[in-house]
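Slide 14.
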Amino acid sequence: MKDLRNNKYALNKEDGESEPEKEQRDGRQDFTRGSVLSNIVRLAIPMTFAQLINVLYNIVDRIYIGRIPDHATLSLTGLGVCFPLITIVIAFANLVGMGGAPLFSIERGRGHGEEAEQIMGNSFTLLLILGLALTVLGYIFKTPLLWLLGASSQTIGYAQGYMNIYLIGSTFVMVSLGLNSFINAQGFGNMGMATVAIGAVMNVILDPVFIFVMHMGVQGAALATIISQLAAACWTLRFLTGKKTIIRLRRRAMKLAADRVKRILVLGLAGFTMSLTNSLVQMVNNAALQTWGGDIYVAVITVINSIREVVQMPVQGITNSAQPVMSFNFGARRYDRVKECIRIMAFMGIIYLLAIWGLISLFPEFWIRIFNHDSDLIRAGVPAMHIYFFGYIFMGLQFSGQAVFQALGYARYAIFFSIFRKVVIVIPLILLLPGIGFGVHGVFMAEPISNLIGGGACVITMLKTVYYGKLKVGAHRDS
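Slide 15: predicted structure.
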């Protein structure tokens, strides 16, 4: 029999709790202590900055590319064609990171440190396998996919140039994004922010060097991105294998176990589906806009997607910071704190999105000029912005409902509503509305309609099945 005294996770005889978990409950990583609001805010501030910084990887690329002499708009459009493929890589990172991290937090809340370690180790192995597979498959299918995604004879060269280099770093992207969730899940929000900031700052510095000084154009932007992601991945691994983390990434935990992998992937399907459906919508958007408006409208949706990524980062930071707090308290059976967390998260997200909707409605041209000064693009983009972001507040409902389902392990609901909003509502509307009299503007109308219907259905289901269902019943049973 293994000597329990030599086991890092040996149970403390007095309280039945493992030593690492005992340390956690005595420190600030115990989310059952302190006010729920302070726990969320303590994570939300660094995580929001981390989310915002993370967007800089691609946003900075677009800002610089939008200022390339002579062919800025075509280069920007070529990069926009690549977005769905980049989103697919992110989808697989979310499959593992957003599946493993909530399970990891729940096991921590239960005091099961060894199982939490195994979940993180298995997640790392999955990230490596999927990253390498995506690189190989990407090189095989990238050219026909780029044509399918809305490339034209004028933009295909820019799109291929970017993807040829970006695919080399797919594994770096997977590791840095997927494992960073486990840093945040342990309560190290500042370290999670620093991990992302390292890569983003490098990208900001390297982009102008490769794009303008070395005259590499879109290829230079891709090279700067993968070098930056490599640095971020190395830093993430260094922290998770070091002494400052609570639960370390260890080689002994990296051997895949079928049941554990299944749990990670099933729960991660929600985040994966969200990203994959985003990719599908981008594909259909690009193809429809190329048909009804040409390259200029593909450039418009590229700019709109860039703006959307920036402005929704704070609300994603709020929901992402609330998730480990909800998961930990759910595992600890503190259902009253879980419900309080849901209320705070929803209120903060809705108020923020209301303010953003107002700013975009009042100053659309300002946002577009951040990325491009082409007069034709601005003329087409302003009305498209008004349509696309109309009623953006309803996205807060979708974010809140999805976050609760994800944090508490209700994978089937999270997956359903990801598919429902994007595949059942958005994509059919994109294909239908332009042909019944709305023209190219019909493509942009699909988003606000889906926000209202999909977001409303998601939050109503969450309230009925979780807030007034599982949490209420669980609290009654434990009382």
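Speaker note: Confidence is low (pLDDT under 50) at residues 1-28.
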